[in-house]
């Protein structure tokens, strides 16, 4: 049911901001952390370990995303949010104290299982929004995510100068504080009449996807969502490694670049999404976002000057126009009793992307950044990601205008 109260909107927005701060705060120190744990400073080796660790997290998210989504459809959003946030705080502490690779992997296993914060926040926002409000409010959450990346990498880069573990302890405090805030002021959004029974057959990823088959045209849109996420996940997967290899950036410089991206990201999703959808509609907004993303990726692939990369970051940020429009169409494609389920499926698809992207893109980066390679070209992963976005455009153009678009 739509809810016009601004308090739950503010709390969910704050949840996403703090959540993304916790994610972004550790990105600038990942190369240094792996060098500390593994004892090697070779970027091609560190990138592979980073990809494996990210994929471990994503695999757990893929498996447990629909389970937590189905549980939120049964028991409500607030309990799942609280569980995710407090266990996330413990996960960051484990990562901060870990001295071996197996402890890092254990931490990522735990973190991946409870990484439902963003998906559950989306489901909460869907609960309290009318169909006409959903795209703009998803854009608002996207802006919160971007704002978190403004503060997260900047703080992470600064704390990283003190050591690669300091940002993890800061992230743990943020997650715990967020959990306390949600406990104290957040009200449950899912009405009793909209709750549905939890069933294991539709709580697993495959069952949850098959449970959506009755909704016309949703599978092609889910495929677009998956491919677009695979393409855009490259930033989280290789940015610190790519910028160190090509531009020899420090953790502070990595943090500054991500901060600039976060500012632009927040402006696009918080300010530009609503007028873009009002002027062009959801489908054209998605296409325009895809075009900007494709152009940015191809350009980044060939850049050799870090200053130009910084200047062009706003071009890349315009690609995120597509994200809230896709999420709005997905949300409007199912009933009120399946908002947790559709967000759980989206979370699983995002996790699939984060299994595929870190392993493949860090491997491609490792191959093409090895000084002994026949062809040295660290920008090759961006060309592969651009191909994913181009494929999204093709599928969307072939999608029948039947239902939601």
Shape descriptor? globular
What is the count of DSSP helices, taking H or I runs of 4+ residues? 17
What fold name stands as the CATH topology?
Growth Hormone, Chain: A
CATH superfamily: MFS general substrate transporter like domains
Q: Quick one: biggest sheet?
A: none
Q: H/E element string?
A: HHHHHHHHHHHHHHHHH
Can you tell me the number of structural domains? 1
Distance between the termini: 23 Å
Description:
With 405 residues, the chain is mainly alpha-helical. It has one domain (6-185, 203-398): Growth Hormone, Chain: A (Up-down Bundle), CATH 1.20.1250.20. Helices cover 78% and strands 0% of the residues. It has helices at 6-24, 30-38, 43-75, 77-97, 101-113, 117-127, 134-160, 166-185, 200-203, 205-210, 218-232, 234-247, 251-302, 306-317, 322-332, 339-369, 380-398. Helix 6 (117-127) runs antiparallel to helix 16 (339-369), helix 7 (134-160) packs across helix 15 and helix 11 packs antiparallel against helix 17. It starts with 5 loop residues before the first helix and ends in a 7-residue tail after the last helix. The mean pLDDT is 80.
Name the features.
Growth Hormone, Chain: A; globular; 17 helices; mainly alpha; 405 residues
Annotate the secondary structure layout:
Elements: H1 6-24, H2 30-38, H3 43-75, H4 77-97, H5 101-113, H6 117-127, H7 134-160, H8 166-185, H9 200-203, H10 205-210, H11 218-232, H12 234-247, H13 251-302, H14 306-317, H15 322-332, H16 339-369, H17 380-398
